[in-house]
Amino acid sequence: MVAALSCESYRTRDIDVHIKARAPEKGNFTPNYITIPVGETVKMLIRNVDTVAHGFAIPELKVDAGEIKAGHNATVEVRAEEAGEYEFYCTVWCGEFHLQMRDMTETIE
Ligand SMILES: [Cu+2]
User: Fold this and answer.
1) How far is the CA of 13 from the centre of ligand 1 (A)?
2) At a CB cut-off of 8 Å and minimum separation 6, what does 53 contact?
């Protein structure tokens, strides 16, 4: 299995995926599409680089970082046992465009 991840920086310390969170009108999640390997635990660091609180959840994979205050970070472990696409989104009302703060995690073999 290949561990290719479309992200800004890969394998910094023990973090596999770095994600920036900002309200949609300020850039939304970066990257906005994450690819992870099936059957491997992937550590994600979510950095809230915004001035309001955000959240990060992938409900189908039972991942929920809870509320991440402005300027704070959270780490989650993500594991997908089956190939597919899993939506991730912000769980904290962060403004007018909150409902647009959702993107996709896809698995690769
Ligand atoms: Cu948000």
Assistant:
1) 26
2) 67, 68, 69, 70, 92, 94
